[in-house]
Design goal:
The complex is a heterodimer of chains A (395) and B (374).
Chain A: H1 7-23, H2 26-33, H3 39-51, H4 70-83, H5 90-103, H6 106-118, E1 123-126, E2 142-146, E3 149-160, E4 167-173, E5 184-190, E6 196-201, E7 210-221, E8 225-226, H7 232-242, H8 250-266, E9 268-269, E10 272-273, H9 278-303, H10 310-336, E11 345-346, E12 352-353, H11 364-370, H12 381-393
Parallel strand pairs in A: 1-4
Antiparallel strand pairs in A: 2-3, 3-7, 4-5, 5-8, 6-7, 9-10, 11-12
Helix pairs in contact in A: 1-4, 4-8, 5-6, 5-7, 8-9, 8-10, 9-10, 10-11, 10-12
Chain B: H1 7-23, H2 26-34, H3 41-49, H4 68-80, H5 87-101, H6 104-115, E1 121-124, H7 126-129, E2 139-143, E3 146-157, E4 164-169, E5 179-184, E6 190-196, E7 202-213, E8 217-218, H8 223-258, E9 260-261, E10 264-265, H9 270-296, H10 302-330, H11 341-354, H12 359-369
Parallel strand pairs in B: 1-4
Antiparallel strand pairs in B: 2-3, 3-7, 4-5, 5-8, 6-7, 9-10
Helix pairs in contact in B: 1-4, 4-8, 5-6, 5-8, 8-9, 8-10, 8-11, 9-10, 10-11, 10-12
The chains are: A alpha+beta (395), B alpha+beta (374).
Chain lengths: 395, 374
């Protein structure tokens, strides 16, 4: 047992730090550390990373990645988060790409992977439906074969940032006569295809972060099916179980913890800084301890050889990671006091705007509201507990 | 980064586990704790045959030359079996105190009979027992030939089994221990009031009113060294508790899989499944910090060391309370029966939350030294 970074891991971290120091634009950094997420920043940052050869550290070298080990991937995410770099868009880089590398055709790999790496294509995900949330396998969007095409009809929802997407990877039903899991296929669909209608869903924080998407007889070439027909559920499960390096969001929580300390030092309560309150400081200590434990649990999982229990471990990291991040957002709102009631600005014409960045800590309340999603998306925490229970109880 | 144990460490753990499987089934343990001494001399000799009293002693003194990671591994196995013999008290804590504070001649005199299993030493220290009104209740005053020790230390684990007491004391008025003395339990002026602890271990209140020679003192100013010894003890207790927690969860999982109600095993109920999962997650979070604390015990950075130890104790206590109470609840009526194994695991977990200071104490300690810069 040696819980220090190896010399190679330290060298890798130094490389990442040097990259960030040299190439992360200060304006982007400022926005990101204030939790202001701009689509233009995400695109621009992916382009910068790609031009420096860091577009996808976790991809194998053969596909243009850096072949980083799980610990190196974790260090990369941590350093980027702490430096204030925008989060890389996961849909193409982390979710679809590993599936294409393992199950995609050579043509799909050659066409799509370089465009994901460069940021040229923006991908989104078409999984959830109005009647298929936690019970994803009950999805009903149907793809009917017609010659060399499928005709896709149905409705998807909770689609994140699809209004900017060039492509969507979708789970669709290709066989209705079998067990639900057996009749699902994965299709890659051009968002410009005729028959696609998209309507943003405004979330409780006021942002249109997700969309509803309707498919009306949308024509998709059979060549855009991933792997075999009716094997989509296998690919979807592979995709979900694949991500261990950053599922806990340790970097993001570390940034928020620092932010909380800064805010509590600057906030006066009862004539003294909030940070001097014993009650507050004890709660701060507790969340810091929980985060420290999460960090080492994450490292412990990543250091172990990939085991059959990888899914269980990812579920533990997801549950605890979301709980800690949500708890930090609660403490931030509390520390902000009455000012946390400010939610949006008003423009010259009376229209609602984002809070000005000049405000010391804008948007903490919106972030608190927005982060409710962490324990819901990607398999709710209750579903994650079901997964863990299945392995713990062997039933 | 490497979180694994070496083959040697695993072999050692396996040999302890095999010994305990043969000699420490719950029925055997039940007889041991019901015996007058509340401990088994035969088991202690068995441990000595495996070299365990010398686990952390240097090899030139006949020990196994282990450190915090070996302690972590073996203590966990002791916890799995709810061992009541003084492994932590004598082999780890008193031995660490002796090695850190004793002169070469003191070590030479005391250690060999401890390693052979003939003698047992324990640290008598209020701050190690748990939260207490006074952390330095023993006063040491100089006399022409040595020191007079007077005071009373409550709940010293394994004192009734000990040949030697390593007594922490203060030489001034402040409530801070700064000196350590070796006292033979058989000496006049040493009085023990024995009890069984809530986790069925032999404990005693130790009352002292006697004069000891100057040569009985171990080291000079002992405050920093004593704190390091306590940290060793806290981490060893946390490590032992991981073993208790693992078994408590496994026993409860097995119970819910076999207990039939409403026409099937109760493990099929989601409300119970999710509570078992919460138990598992708290154990895993605590385990990570116990590993971290054990790894930092050797660090020269006292701040980093004590922060990691305090953090580990906070999460171990959190897990101990949650897992212990839920394990009993999930056993239903059987959970509150003395004949159920789980009730004994529960009581061990209750004791772990009290020993070496509560979670509240350690959280306050952590909060007092954490980095506040944003």
């Amino acid at each position: 047992m040696d819980l220090n970074l190896t010399p190679a891991e330290q060298a890798f971290r130094s490389q990442v730090r040097a990259l960030l120091a040299a190439h992360l634009p200060p304006d982007m950094r400022r926005r990101t550390l204030r939790a202001r997420i701009e689509v233009a920043d995400i695109r621009r940052w992916q382009g910068i990373l790609h031009s420096q050869g860091w577009g996808a550290v976790h991809w194998p070298v053969d596909f243009g990645g850096r072949g980083a080990t799980p610990i190196e991937q974790y260090l990369f995410e941590l350093e980027c988060a702490e430096a204030g770099a925008p989060v890389q868009l996961a849909f193409g880089l982390r979710m679809l790409a590993p599936v294409l590398m393992k199950f995609g055709s050579p043509a799909q790999q050659q066409h799509f992977l370089p465009r994901i790496l460069s940021g040229e294509d923006w991908w989104c995900q078409g999984y959830s439906e109005p009647g298929a949330g936690s019970d994803l396998a009950s999805l009903r969007t149907q793809a009917v074969r017609q010659g060399d095409d499928y005709l896709v009809s149905g409705q998807k929802c909770w689609n994140t940032l699809g209004q900017f997407a060039d492509w969507i990877f979708c789970l669709v039903r290709t066989d209705t006569g079998v067990k639900p899991q057996r009749g699902i296929s994965m299709l890659l669909i051009d968002m410009k295809s005729p028959g696609i209608t998209l309507r943003p869903t405004v979330l409780l924080d006021g942002t249109p972060e997700v969309n509803e998407i309707w498919f009306d007889q949308v024509r998709v070439p059979v060549a855009n099916r991933v792997g075999e027909e009716n094997q989509g559920w296998t690919y979807a499960k592979y995709l979900l179980g694949h991500e261990r390096a950053n599922i806990a969001g340790v970097g993001a929580s570390r940034v928020e913890l620092k932010r909380l300390k800064r805010l509590a030092a600057a906030t006066m309560r009862n004539g003294r800084p909030l940070l001097q309150s014993e009650d507050f400081r004890r709660r701060l200590a507790r969340v810091e301890i929980d985060l420290l434990a999460l960090e080492y649990t994450n490292l412990r999982v990543l250091s172990a050889p990939e085991a059959a229990s990888a899914g269980t471990q990812a579920s533990i990291l997801k549950i605890r990671g979301s709980q800690i991040r949500q708890h930090l957002s609660e403490l931030l709102v509390e520390a902000r006091g009455a000012a946390a009631l400010r939610f949006a600005g008003r423009g010259p014409g009376g229209e609602m705007t984002a809070l000005p960045l000049e405000d010391e800590e804008p948007g903490l309340t919106a972030a608190y509201l927005n982060l409710r999603k962490l324990s819901i998306f990607g398999g709710s925490n209750e579903i994650q507990k079901n997964i863990i229970a299945q392995s713990l109880l062997g039933m | 980064m490497d979180f694994s144990f070496t083959d040697e460490q695993e072999l050692l753990a396996d040999s302890v586990r095999r010994y305990l499987a043969d000699h420490y089934a719950l029925e055997q343990r039940r007889r041991i704790i019901a015996s007058p001494s509340g401990s088994s001399a035969a088991v202690w000799q068995g441990f000595a045959d495996l070299g365990l009293p010398g686990l952390i002693a240097p090899d030139d003194l006949g020990g196994l030359d282990g450190g915090p990671i070996e302690t972590l591994r073996v203590a966990g196995v002791m916890g799995e079996h709810l061992v009541v013999e003084p492994f932590l008290s004598s082999a780890i804590i008193a031995t660490q105190a002796l090695l850190d504070l004793g002169s070469p001649s003191q070590v030479q005199r005391l250690l060999p009979p401890m390693l052979s299993g003939e003698r047992i030493a324990v640290l008598a220290d209020a701050a190690s027992a748990g939260d207490a009104a006074r952390l330095a209740p023993v006063l040491a005053t100089r006399t022409p030939s040595g020191f007079r020790l007077s005071g009373r230390i409550e709940v010293v684990y394994h004192a009734p089994l000990a040949d030697h007491l390593l007594v922490s004391a203060r030489t001034g008025e402040a409530d801070v221990t700064n000196a350590l003395f070796m006292v033979d339990r058989a000496m006049a002026g040493v009085h023990l009031v024995p009890y069984a602890s809530v986790d069925a271990q032999a404990v005693a209140d130790v009352e002292l009113d006697l004069e000891v020679p100057a040569t009985a003192r171990l080291g000079e100013d002992a405050s920093a060294s004593l704190e390091r010894v306590r940290e060793t003890g806290r981490v060893a207790l946390c490590a032992e508790t991981l073993g208790v927690l693992d078994r408590a969860l496994a026993i409860t999982v097995e119970y819910t899989r076999t207990r039939q109600q409403f026409g099937g095993p109760i493990a099929r109920f989601q409300v119970l499944q999710h509570r078992l999962v919460e138990m598992l997650m708290r154990i895993e979070q605590a385990r990570s910090l116990v590993f971290l604390a054990a790894s930092r015990l050797g660090s020269a950075d006292a701040g980093a060391r004590s922060a990691a130890v305090a953090a580990a104790k906070v999460l171990i206590d959190d897990a101990a309370r949650f897992v212990g109470e839920e394990a009993v609840q999930l056993h239903g009526g059987m959970g509150v029966a003395d004949e159920s194994p789980i009730s004994h695991y529960f009581k061990r977990l209750v004791a772990a939350q009290i020993r070496f200071g509560s979670a509240a104490t350690h959280l306050e300690r952590y909060a007092g030294t954490m980095d506040l810069s944003g």
